[in-house]
Amino acid sequence: xxxxxxxxxxxxxxxxxxxxxxxxxxxxxxxxxxxxxxxxxxxxxxxxxxxxxxxxxxxxxxxxxxxxxxxxxxxxxxxxxxxxxxxxxxxxxxxxxxxxxxxxxxxxxxxxxxxxxxxxxxxxxxxxxxxxxxxxxxxxxxxxxxxxxxxxxxxxxxxxxxxxxxxxxxxxxxxxxxxxxxxxxxxxxxxxxxxxxxxxxxxxxxxxxxxxxxxxxxxxxxxxxxxxxxxxxxxxxxxxxxxxxxxxxxxxxxxxxxxxxxxxxxxxxxxxxxxxxxxxxxxxxxxxxxxxxxxxxxxxxxxxxxxxxxxxxxxxxxxxxxxxxxxxxxxxxxxxxxxxxxxxxxxxxxxxxxxxxxxxxxxxxxxxxxxxxxxxxxxxxxxxxxxxxxxxxxxxxxxxxxxxxxxxxxxxxxxxxxxxxxxxxxxxxxxxxxxxxxxxxxxxxxxxxxxxxxxxxxxxxxxxxxxxxxxxxxxxxxxxxxxxxxxxxxxxxxxxxxxxxxxxxxxxxxxxxxxxxxxxxxxxxxxxxxxxxxxxxxxxxxxxxxxxxxxxxxxxxxxxxxxxxxxxxxxxxxxxxxxxxxxxxxxxxxxxxxxxxxxxxxxxxxxxxxxxxxxxxxx
Length: 619
Description:
Ammonium transporter fold
């Protein structure tokens, strides 16, 4: 909340400093509020293109004249009765509607965008407003907290001896994935030099911008960075509890590239899927890429030791963590989907609030479906992961179509998404694929359903023009569902092949999977020197330390102060020994710590354990 207040205060100060005029102020001004640089191509203007502005002087002039028969700007200003539309009223109104989608306020008497050629209009409308930037920043701030949600959810599903390791992997996804996306990833998606094509962006590597370009460039980079890091995080959950940490770090750095190319295909101006009018408002395709990459990784690495020798699923490390993580994801997902409108100026706020409501209603339906499935399959019990995965499945399913379906349709999509994902999770278990958090199904299958659902339920968007075709049930025919299917097939194929290649290449340099004794001891102890008391780690470490030189003994259990332990032993042990010897001189002297432990009611059995094992571990 503090961040929001600060942002809006800064925005207000900028508004006053730069002389920004409100709608009411513009209406009171007798002259049109249009800057000549917007029309004539000031190089500081974000949409500057000398070929457009130099070649279209007549259109520029017509735009100033509003399409009327006036011979000059002065004559046009005085044409009070003719203000509102030019010679072609319908074309003028369509152009005006397009402008409202991009401007904070447009004086309907000032601009006739219908005179701008259709192939130039997208470039012309590259206008960024301060409130759009505020919306984007706030959305991404919330979206980035999804990493925390995923970390809690995944660690809650795994055993306690791997909890910290999973948290660290989620941190690595942002750290290393963020660097690789800045250096190369963004350029592969949105680079626009002469080598760029419909299939590969090129340029803008090591992202940098100057002047007016900083706003749109950095906003796009920040927003897309959140997508890229989350795509890799999906994979980490599917291969939890048996992956070498350093191998995963390498994977996290390079897996960013798996996301970058499809992002360009879908959202870059020249992307071949974008030019085919594929609809993916908030990134169901991102989940498809991450989910099927997770499926490949889980299959290649193999199941956890002993996974299929037990009946049912292994116990969760912390159901509470999993629930808290899901709730964090839930609210961040709203920012994810509504933020995909990339602003709230003009009429974009309408699309943003629609995305918010459809996302919420879809999640309600998915969670309810999860409860129903759990009651039926668990004999009246409410299974935590079935319900939580129901919520997340619905959120994933709604990403592609959050801005172009009705509330009722969003409920149907969310409920079916949860049901489909549940059956998919059961299927991969039958196939012997071990996915501790069902990431491959929740994201891969959920995202697949979300993309196809657009082709079925979407309705043409007359506000912003983002969705140009009706879905199947609205009489739009098979074109939209056809291109949505194509996009899914392309994304799955790319994800499977590229993930396979990355894991193979990493495997040639280092072990991608932990060694057997490392997996049994746990990644927290082996890779992070964290001994979590009460997980049978002490006995396991004692056994393996005899045969494996890389197993280090003596890590102090989490929550215990080594300094206090040493201080207690060195300072008070001798005092206890002296007092005990004076009272019972014929009895063998024992350590002060033994004396302390012998008085706690545990008896000889407890002292025997202290003698055999490291006494510090029982403090």
